[in-house]
Design goal:
Layout (H helix, E strand, L loop, with lengths): L2 H24 L10 H23 L5 H9 L8 H22 L1 H5 L4 H6 L10 H21 L19 H15 L9 H13 L15 H20 L1
């Protein structure tokens, strides 16, 4: 398996299980309907666990353009590989979320609330306040990337191992994402990953979803630029403090 394929498959699994748990909670007539935020955050944490298990040994399990860019800013990942990693992550996110739609198609057809349909694809702030929404995405992603950098005593010196979220190990990174979701996710839905939001948002636009709303492109830049800024800030702080 190549790093490109590992990032593609790992990100597809992340979105299949991550957006899958959202669909199970918010769509009508599912077994998990209305089971709540704890279920969603737990499902996303376990989705990250699965993605890291798949991709970690091969690519480092970035699964996230913000992580890839943060690693490059810190000098831990070559800039020449950034475009291919981001492409793999975007394609994986699009495939993973399409599989969610296929699996839950009957439940989408039985859910009249277009906002709930869209929530299974991409994020929407609980209260739209764009400067604060950007800050929330920066904060959540900063915690993610800064913690990745500071695992193992603050240094990633094993050049034989791919660098990424897999450097923490699958279980610790799952707990990290779970903590971010529980503590910081209530404002914007904690995208903390441009591919996780933009790839599914594109598929929401393209797929023939019965009764769907617009894909809210006016907000779409927030979960892209906010996480990138948070990751870059984490890289700069890590570099300055190490």
């Amino acid at each position: 398996m190549t790093p490109f394929l590992a990032e593609f498959i790992g990100t597809a699994a992340l979105l299949l299980l991550g957006n899958g748990v959202v669909a199970n909670v918010v769509l009508n007539k599912t077994k998990g309907n209305s089971s709540g935020w704890i279920v969603i955050t737990t499902g996303w944490a376990l989705a990250v666990y699965v993605g890291v298990v798949i991709a970690g040994p091969i690519s480092g399990a970035h699964l996230n353009p913000a992580v890839t860019i943060g690693m490059a800013v810190a000098g831990k990942f070559p800039w020449s590989q950034v475009p291919s990693f981001i492409l793999a992550q975007m394609l994986g996110a699009m495939v993973g979320t399409t599989l969610v739609w296929l699996n839950y198609k009957d439940h989408y057809d039985n859910t009249a609330d277009a906002g709930l349909q869209r929530a299974t694809f991409c994020t929407t702030p609980a209260i739209q306040n764009i400067p604060r929404n950007v800050l929330c995405e920066i904060t959540g992603t900063f915690v993610l990337v800064f913690t990745v950098f500071y695992f193992a005593g603050g240094e990633m010196v094993d050049t034989k191992a791919p660098i990424g979220m897999g450097s923490l190990g699958a279980i610790p990174v799952a707990f990290l994402v779970w903590a971010i979701g529980l503590s910081l996710g209530g404002t914007t839905g904690y995208a903390i990953n441009p591919a996780r939001d933009l790839g599914p948002r594109i598929m929401h636009q393209l797929l023939p979803i019965k009764g769907k709303s617009d894909s809210d492109w006016t907000y779409s830049w927030v979960p892209v630029l906010g996480p990138i800024a948070g990751a870059a800030l984490a890289a700069i702080c890590y570099t300055a403090l190490k």
